[in-house]
From TrEMBL:
GO MF terms held by the record: DNA binding; DNA-binding transcription factor activity
Family annotation (Pfam families): GntR
Keyword Transcription: yes
Keywords attached to this entry: DNA-binding, Transcription, Transcription regulation
Keyword Aminoacyl-tRNA synthetase annotated: no
Entry-linked PANTHER family: HTH-TYPE TRANSCRIPTIONAL REPRESSOR YTRA
Domain HTH gntR-type positions: 9-77
Name used for this protein in its record: GntR family transcriptional regulator
InterPro entries listed in its UniProt record: Tscrpt_reg_HTH_GntR, WH-like_DNA-bd_sf, WH_DNA-bd_sf
């Protein structure tokens, strides 16, 4: 992972996004242990609080869980969340088809919704 100091995206968000994408892509499987906050902060040249904020937001989203001294690991809840999104996407696709939207129109609606 690399932090782009020139990016408009704050460093904590870059960290959060990196892990969220890796979890979504299943590059980090359920139970995978994340580096400690202090170790990752040192590796990336960031403040401990910056990495802690990213981890806190990942935990609030249900993607990871902190197990005290055992550290922070990828949560099974994140996998279930992905399954919920897949089910919702299938339902949306069925509705979009039913009302006669083209694939491009349906995708444009999703893109707009994600920008909120």
């Amino acid at each position: 992972m690399r932090i782009d100091q020139d990016s408009d995206v704050p460093p904590y968000e870059q960290v959060r996004l990196h892990f969220a994408q890796a979890i979504a892509a299943r590059e980090l499987p359920v139970g995978a242990k994340l580096p400690t906050v202090r170790a990752l902060a040192a590796d990336l040249g960031l403040a401990v609080n910056t990495v802690a904020r990213a981890y806190r937001e990942l935990e609030e989203a249900g993607l990871v869980e902190t197990r005290g001294r055992a550290g922070t690991v990828v949560s099974a809840a994140g996998d279930r969340g992905r399954e919920r999104v897949v089910r919702a996407a299938r339902a949306y696709a069925a509705t979009a088809t039913e009302v006669g939207l083209t694939a491009d129109e349906a995708l444009e609606i999703i893109r707009a919704a994600l920008m909120v």
